[in-house]
Every structure is written in structure tokens, then in C-alpha cells.
Amino acid sequence: MKKGWVVLNVLCIGIACMMMTSCTGIFQQKKLESSGQCGDQLNWTYDQKKKTLTISGSGAMNVPKFYWNEYEIQTLVLEEGITSISQSAFYGHSELRGELKLPSTLETIEEFAFYDCGNLEGNLIIPENVKRIGDYAFRGCEKMNGNLQLPEGLLSIGKNAFYDCAFQDELHIPESVLEIGRAAFKGCVGLRGNLIIPDRVESIGDYAFAQCSGLDGELKLSTSLKTIPESCFNGCENLKGDLIVPDSIEEIGAHAFWNCGFDGKLVLSKSLKKMGIYAFSSCRKLMGSLVIPELMETIPSYAFAYCTDLESVTFPGTLKYISEGAFGDCTALKNIGLPEHLLIIGNDAFRHCISLEGDLNLPDSLLSIGERSFENCKKMKYIKLPESLLNIKEDAFVDCEALCGDLLIPDSVYVIGPNAFQKTKISSVQFGNQNAKLVSIGSGAFYQCDALKNVQFTGNIPDYYAETGIEEKDGYPETLYSSFPEDCKIDFVENQKNIENDLPLSINGETQENKIEPYSWMDHLRGSKLKGTGQYADIEIIFEDMMELRVNGRRKNNVEFKADPYDAEMKISITFPYRGGIVTDMRMIEGNGSDCVLEATYTKDGQESFIYFTDGSEEGIYIF
Q1: DSSP class of 1
Q2: Is the pTM of this model over 0.85?
Q3: Coil, helix or strand for 5?
């Protein structure tokens, strides 16, 4: 019995020893090769003690990506004869030290070749035979703090090629270069002096020189470019002198020159057709006169906002839309001549243009004056409103403290928004003739207009606020001020009809919850305040589980709506009355940028038309 146990124990111990031996073999560190071939005629050797990799021979490197990633390489020796560096060959070798010496025989540097080699230092001299620098080739080499020398004969600089490198002094781009990729030099804050883009360059990627805040000379652009893409020079805050956009340029992308430091004049390309939002925003030192080219139909949102030294703007006759915030806070702007075919002045378009002076002559084509569009234009004295105008929106002329004289509201105007002329010196107002279409005058529209002593309604009497009151809005009490000053005399013509406010209908006499599904097209609606446009600018709708409806700032009953979150046509089933007609069949349509736009059918007296709602500025329903 004891003998059997002894035999069994011996067997178990033997098996355990075999397993331990086997496991030791499994977990032993793989032995790294010390040499090998890395091309048809290229060889490599690795000195483990010195942690040095040497590549010698001739021809192109041909190794798999991350080939030496298991090696700790502190010194890299690339001997003469090598013609290419393989893709991702030294990707992430942050242990590499010192200055990188590239062989004069080199012709190509592939993608990610030295990506994130963050401890390489000193100069980088690209050999004279190199034609192409691949995408991300040196991205993240953040201690390369010497000069960058690019060879004559270079054709292409890839995407992110030198992103976040620390090169110093002036960047010389060779005359031979045809293409500069996306974010190629983004964040190279050590670059100094002028930036000259040679005339052979046909393409520059977005963000190519973004955040190169050390550039402190002038910028010269290639005459072969057709587009300056998004954020191309964004944040180059120390560039100086004039900015001359060559006549070859047809499009300037969003944020292209945001917060640049140019302190001279801006001359735009005569071929310019399109410009992105914030294109020149916060170029605070641009000065003098600006001429918008003839081919432009739209000034995009915030395109020249905060250009605080700009003094005058000349618009082409072709211009139709001045979008939201386009010239907001251009505090030195004195003169604007609005074009004859202008349709929309967007929200905040000239807000806080405190130097804007004299008369404001609005063109006979104008349909809408946006929210806060001329707020705080303290020196503007007189305005003439055109017969084409449909609405004057909330705060449009608030705090225009020099605005004075008689004001005639044309027959065409349907809506005057809250606080539209508050704190002005207007002395009398006449609301159109007997054919006046005015239906709503918002809370505080002429409040604190102390010089206003007389108001005359010659057409139907619109909905207005006769006295100040308090109403709950967004869960908080809100003061709704009387539309006119307390001591203002209001005259009415006999046989006038009061415009009544319709109460919304609910389906089957009840209201039911309709939950907005997240991560669907309906999610964009949640909490959004969408306002009517054109002649319907006094409607405001807010979607939660129910739709809240306001007309001229007055809250109505919540309205039931039904929608399928997976409906490709994005339809909303809803019904409510408005101005003697019925609003039905909403659907979400494409808007301008991030704006939400809804289209609804409006039926009155058997005639159908469309109402458009947006949570942005009115031009968003026209510009797609």
C-alpha cells in the first residue's frame, strides 16, 4: 500500500516538473534577431549593448509595418545607398535620441515612417532626391527644434507630415511643390518669418498651417490655387501686412483665416463665389475698406465678425443674404451700402457695430430683418423700411439710441418682434395704410421709446401688448412689457377689425404624450425653439413630449404630435389653427449647417402654402 503511494507521488512530481519545464519554455522571452535583410540589397544589424540599429546596402527598404517595434533603438544609422524608408518602419520609437541623419540617396519617405518619434532633436534635412514625404511621416516629433530644410525638386508634402514639430526660423517651401496635405504643418508654433506658398502649388489641405502662431511675417498665396480649405491658416495670430487673395481663388473654407493677425487691408479674389462660416472672423487688425466680389450671393455666418478695425464694406448687386453675425462686433465699421437685390439680413448681422452712422437705406427687395441684426448701433440715425419687408424680428434695432424721427411701417410687414425698437428716439409710428398686413407687435417692441408720443393704426388692429404683465416661460416667470410707452397715444381708424389669436386644436379633444426617441432624427427636435419665418415670424414651437406653441410670445395649449423616429421622410403629424387657417403635415428638411428646419402645410380659404420653421437665422431656409 505504501509502495503504491510512493510510486504515485513520484509520478506526480515528474509530471509537475515536466509541466514547469514546458511553461518555462513558453514564457521565456523571445530571442531577438541581431541582423537580417530589409530590402533586395539592404541589410540591417542591431547592437543590443549600444541599442543601435544600422541599415546598409543600396535600394529601397521593404519591411512590414512596425518591423522593429520590439527593439529598443536609441541610435539609428542610415547609410548611403538607401532610397526609401518603409511605411511605419520606425513608428512610435520614442526612445530614439539625437538628430536624425537621412542619407543623400533617399528618394521617398513613406507614411508614418517616423511617426511619434518624440525625442528626436535638432535639424531635419530632407535629402535633395526626395520627391514625396508621406502622410504622418514626422508627426509628433515634437522635439525636432532646429531648422527644417526641404529640397528643391520636392513635389508632395503629405497629410500631417510635420504636425506638432518644433522647427524654428523661416519655412522655405520649394518652388517645385505641387501639393501640401491636410494639417501638414499644423501646430508648428516655432516657425517664424514670412510664409510664401509657391505659385506651382495647386492644392493645400485643410488645417495645413493651422495654429502656426509663431509665423510673424507676411503671407503670399499661390496663384494656382482655386480653394483655400477649412481652417487652413486658422490661428496664425502673428501674420502681418496685407492679405491678398489671388484671383484664381473661387472658394474660401470655414475658419480659413480665423484669428489671423494681418494688420493691413484685405483684397478678395474677383473669382470668389463661396465662403465658409467664420472665414475671417476675429481678424481684429484688418483695416480700411472691404469690397465683396461680384460673384458672391451670400456672406456666410460670422464671416467677418470681430474684424474690429474694418471701416467700410461695399457689397455687389448680386448679394442676396447677409447671414447670422456676418459683421457682428465690427466696431470701427462706419459705412455700408446694402445691395439692391438683398433678401435677408440675418440674426446679429451688424450687432454692436457702434460706429455705423447716418441713414440706413434698406433695399426694396428685403424680406426679413433678423434678431439683434442692428442692436446697439448707437450712431445710426434714420431708417427707411422697404415695401417688400415681411418681418422685423426681436431686438432688431434695440439700443439704437440715436435712431429718431418718424417711422412708417410698410403695408407688407406682418410681424414686429419683441423689443424691436426698444430704447430708440423714434417720435412717431404709422402702421401702413388700410391694406396693412400687420398681425403681431411683440412685447416691448417700442418700450422705453421716450420720444414716442403718437402711434396710428390705419389698417386692421394687430395683436399687441397693451400693458405689462408676467407669464411663465421655460419654467420661470418672464416679464412681457407693453408694446408702447405708457404715455403714448394710440389712434385707431373707424371700422377696424381686431386680429384674434387662435387657440390650438387637439386631436380628439385630448392631448397625448409622444416621446422623442434618442439617437434618431427626432432627437434634434428635443428642446429646440423653432420660429416661423417670413410672414409667419410670430410663431414659436418647442418640442418635448408635447409640442408647446406660442404666438406673438403668448403661450397656447400644448399640441399633440405623432412621428415615427425611423421614418426616412421625417414626417410629423400635427394639426393646429393659426390666423384663420390650419397648420398640418410637418416634416424636417435639410437646413444650413447645424440648423434644424421644418416645413409645414398651411391651409387658409382653400389655398395651400408652406410655413418654414428654423432654430437658426432666417437665411438658413434658403441656403443649403
Answers
A1: -
A2: yes
A3: helix
